[in-house]
Design goal:
Order of helices and strands: EEEEEEEEEEEEEEH
Largest sheet: 6 strands, antiparallel
Radius of gyration: 20 Å
Length: 215
């Protein structure tokens, strides 16, 4: 099953104590959250999901919910009012978290480091925050696309990949700041085997060909 971003919610121009998903969550999907200054404080939501920590850097966390509950949902990132939430379909019940990385530094260019995917169907989530200025802009690089911003201080980006390999999350901020960045890999649900690529269909075809049914 292909990985698809279903929806997201951010607050690019102001702080927000809570964020509500625009539409009902679909049961079984993956929820992700990138927050500035949550510092290992577990998010909560009105749907009753249990949020798990994927990766923490000083003042930068990535959290996730595997196999989420369905319905309306409002999220609170404890100890943070600058965060972004998103929902993805096409994920296994376990959530598929396999590898993380992170780094801290200063300047306009940031880099969380590299991660290795172990599947040709994977979602990579990156998060970066700054500690020096408000209302800045982020331009992710390396194939990542920005999902949203929390008050111009926290940013979430994504990349959905179809090849096993090493990928690096980084980018450029519009102002020189002190930054913290994190990245996490989530393996997608198993893809069905296409006809012509092996699997039951071709095995069956080979079997009947031997009997002269297919020419």
């Amino acid at each position: 099953m292909a990985i698809t971003q279903v929806q997201f919610k951010d607050s690019p121009g102001a702080t927000a104590a809570t964020l509500a998903f625009p539409s009902n969550n679909t049961a079984g999907n993956l929820l992700v959250l990138a927050a500035r200054k949550s510092i290992n404080s577990q998010p909560t939501d009105t749907a009753g999901n249990t949020w798990l920590l994927a990766k923490t850097q000083p003042t930068m966390d990535i959290w996730y919910v595997p196999n989420c509950l369905g319905g309306a949902n409002t999220v609170q990132a404890q100890n943070s009012n600058e965060f972004i939430i998103a929902e993805f379909s096409g994920m296994p019940i376990s959530g598929g978290l396999t590898q993380t990385n992170g780094a801290s530094g200063s300047g306009t260019v940031y880099a969380a480091g590299s991660v290795l995917t172990t599947s040709s169907n994977a979602l990579i989530i990156g998060g970066v925050c700054n500690e020096s200025a408000d209302g800045i802009f982020d331009t992710p690089s390396g194939g990542f696309t920005e999902i949203g911003s929390g008050n111009g201080n926290a940013f979430m980006a994504k990349m959905i990949v179809s090849s096993i390999g090493t990928y690096s999350y980084g980018g450029t901020l519009s102002t020189t700041v002190s930054w913290n960045a994190a990245v996490a890999v989530f393996i997608g649900a198993s893809q069905p085997v296409a006809a012509g690529g092996g699997g039951w269909l071709n095995t069956h075809r080979d079997f009947v060909n031997k009997r002269g049914i297919y020419q």
